[in-house]
Amino acid sequence: MLEVKAVTRMFGRKAAVDDVSFAVDGPAFVGIIGRSGAGKSTFLRMMNRLLDATSGEIRVDGRDVLGLTGAAARAWQSHCAMIFQQFNLVPRMDVASNVLHGILNRRSTLQTMFNLWPRADILKALDILDRLGIAEQASKRAEALSGGQQQRVAIARALMQDPRIILADEPIASLDPMNAQVVMDTLKRINVEDGRMVIANLHTLDTARRYCDRVIGMRDGRIVFDGTPDQLSTGVAREIYGADDSFNEAATSTSITGDAKADRTYADLMLS
Ligand SMILES: Nc1ncnc2c1ncn2[C@@H]1O[C@H](COP(=O)(O)OP(=O)(O)OP(=O)(O)O)[C@@H](O)[C@H]1O
Ligand SMILES: [Mg+2]
Fold first, then answer.
1. C-alpha dist (Å) from residue 176 to 67, 142, 193
2. Which domain does 69 fall in, by range?
3. Residues with beta carbon inside 6 Å of ligand 1?
């Protein structure tokens, strides 16, 4: 289904993503982990065509999406919806309209100006909100919702596009552990029930272990690990994060049951 072949992205003389290759057969839940600056976001942005690659191919069902331009590139973008750490909702707009904006590119300017949506689209948006457990929030302004609810609205907006692949760039990095779990459970459900591939950049190891079928570890733009969660030992994690023996896994945890320290990320550890 997905074949990434020798993808590289240079920024000046620095390779942010360096000769990355991997293949995914079915609709797996793939996690990408690695320390800050490893190239995780750059990779997702190339997949979504927000950023051009310097070289390489990303083939989906045999077709190189990096070679698409114009309308074909836009069509591809709607097949791989992106979710961001900061939700990227329109804060003062109501939840249902935010969700409907997932299909904005299919509409005329006039329809959009007057906020006119076909009844079928409105019903679809409400159905999706209902499925994600936030239907009762539909008429509220997005900014009035909790972070976890806002991220579910962003997922609903993505689902409006009926995407084959969902790309999530640190989807839970701004959320408390409880909301983080709800959002990850939601992504997992969409993956399992709908058969949509999910590729998520994650900053904590325990989340990657718990939700992913496959984990890709990046360091300095390159893949240094590609395997299943149970192959992701502390030693391997240490290598991915470039840490020494003092590396403490709890510091990359978002566990709800863990101690206070468990809420800290690897980045915090490096700074402390
Ligand atoms: N627009 C840009 N111009 C120049 N350098 C960039 C640009 N975007 C990213 N980089 C560099 O590319 C490298 C990879 O960045 P990227 O944002 O992909 O890392 P990341 O793994 O997502 O990190 P984080 O965990 O902090 O989000 C970094 O060294 C970064 O400074
Ligand atoms: Mg990033």
1. 39, 18, 26
2. 2-271
3. 11, 16, 34, 36-42
